[in-house]
Amino acid sequence: xxxxxxxxxxxxxxxxxxxxxxxxxxxxxxxxxxxxxxxxxxxxxxxxxxxxxxxxxxxxxxxxxxxxxxxxxxxxxxxxxxxxxxxxxxxxxxxxxxxxxxxxxxxxxxxxxxxxxxxxxxxxxxxxxxxxxxxxxxxxxxxxxxxxxxxxxxxxxxxxxxxxxxxxxxxxxxxxxxxxxxxxxxxxxxxxxxxxxxxxxxxxxxxxxxxxxxxxxxxxxxxxxxxxxxxxxxxxxxxxxxxxxxxxxxxxxxxxxxxxxxxxxxxxxxxxxxxxxxxxxxxxxxxxxxxxxxxxxxxxxxxxxxxxxxxxxxxxxxxxxxxxxxxxxxxxxxxxxxxxxxxxxxxxxxxxxxxxxxxxxxxxxxxxxxxxxxxxxxxxxxxxxxxxxxxxxxxxxxxxxxxxxxxxxxxxxxxxxxxxxxxxxxxxxxxxxxxxxxxxxxxxxxxxxxxxxxxxxxxxxxxxxxxxxxxxxxxxxxxxxxxxxxxxxxxxxxxxxxxxxxxxxxxxxxxxxxxxxxxxxxxxxxxxxxxxxxxxxxxxxxxxxxxxxxxxxxxxxxxxxxxxxxxxxxxxxxxxxxxxxxxxxxxxxxxxxxxxxxxxxxxxxxxxxxxxxxxxxxxxxxxxxxxxxxxxxxxxxxxxxxxxxxxxxxxxxxxxxxxxxxxxxxxxxxxxxxxxxxxxxxxxxxxxxxxxxxxxxxxxxxxxxxxxxxxxxxxxxxxxxxxxxxxxxxxxxxxxxxxxxxxxxxxxxxxxxxx
Length: 755
Fold this sequence. Notes:
This protein is α+β, with helices and mostly antiparallel strands and 755 residues long. It has 3 domains: 4-49 and 95-305, Beta-galactosidase, Chain A, domain 5, CATH 2.70.98; 61-91 and 348-536, Alpha/alpha barrel (Glycosyltransferase), CATH 1.50.10.10; 679-753, Immunoglobulin-like (Sandwich).
């Protein structure tokens, strides 16, 4: 259902990149610009970053901690002093574009029957058009098993003529020999750090036409087809090892691809991609997908007629993007995923970790892809190595393997704060490993806990020493609530709700790791005692809003800030969600309503609000937020479906809302926690009929099938990996299941509860 991301006319955006359609295999990303006369294929590789190994800590910063903490407890604003003594640099290093594969065709724009689409199920992008009786077809895919990008041009009358070259904004040189284009480049330096990455782009062309090298271009003439096999390699093995033979690696991959052939690689790619994609499916409404309805027509029907087909297609498109950017062996997707064509991209196209990188992974467990967490796990194990140095230099914490990460990092795994005082957010590493723990919640795989143990142990050690007494509590200081000021106290103070929730949940998860795989009962006991002194995860202020900082009352109803950090424990966390306190629930509702008015809107911010409203069961506002996000007239989405920032006038996009969308949408239909599943808790009226298959749930459960109409469950079948008891709530009734491992249990059938 709705697996074709289709356009039936060339883009009206002749700047190109905002309409360029993406492909990727985690290692490499490519954007295909929409232009008939010439073609620009913008290339990225996940380890092609500016700079080289470096640190951004200010040595000995901890010497200023006692004074600044005392000032914070006295209510003094000291942002400048925090920044000048603890923030080592402005900005980080940059995920750079590798270059562009350019193809110049002997075409005019006078074409007919134009179509371009992504077959989301197969992971294949294609376009076609006719001119002067000739049919031209183009096809592109990024093969993960062989780590190669393949594309094919064809002309029905053997009149395919084009010239191609590789160009780059980085320093480098292109050589063309026979049918091989080989660009050797050097990444730039940035912010005083010398560029150490070397890389190669290799492209080998196969064609039945005539091929000729003229200067730095390869010319193809009178062909019926041309196939291109392309790969990018860098010298990066790890932060400490930049010795990979990038030239040999790139050429070896394309030579092997050339030898195996286009159709073999295409079949290999489709088998790999579709096996992941087909684990989950969604149908909404009663319309049948004819496979020929364009994105723009579905968008029009969505806002004009409340047709949910656009919701389904976007759900499928975002699953395609996740599989294209988040694969094991590569680096995790950045702020722009793996699709950046600028030398100076927004926010350096790096890792912002005060929500954005986390959001990139929100969906993978529910979609049945927990193995995709491994790229983030490997990243965090490397980050923790650097984070130990930061813990020592900034906070004089040296015990065991204590580590810390603030609100940004990059390929080089720096852990000190950057940009400004708002970067003093020392709980971001804890948030990231809490996200990694999600894989266990969904699979119940205890071997995963053993892989997480060192990260949780070191993080718990850090916070046991970092927390400081204030009155009867232990609090974080410095503390921020990401990117939002605490009234007259500025950005940096103590005891934000965000910190309290994240540290509490990290401690809880550490204790579970310790129970199953650990060997440090002394630290576990210390954690239990310190948990008792953490401030409550959430509190209601005099304005009736959830307090952003537990010890201060600077919340106000007019605030429309994009972040909702003090509701972390509602979603994606659990510490607020499980409170079930009426007064707190009313404050959450009011806080969300205030923060969801037009104002500081971002695509990722609206996506987060969908999940938060779903968690409190507000179906009406879930629908409002979905419509706000998916209606392109609001400026929250580019033509190619990437999340946009309206205040950047279309010059910036972020991938995070794409990575999060499947999870936040599913939250309106199925909510799961330990031992309990709630069906249809917050489904908007315009999506009240449909069917899910294959959705994965906490507790090692899988929703084999969930069909519904008029907002009521018709059929529900659930299976379990390990077995056990689970309560299923649907249509105002409760069923208690005792499942055996591997058992599929039919809970509802034809609108009747069976158990």
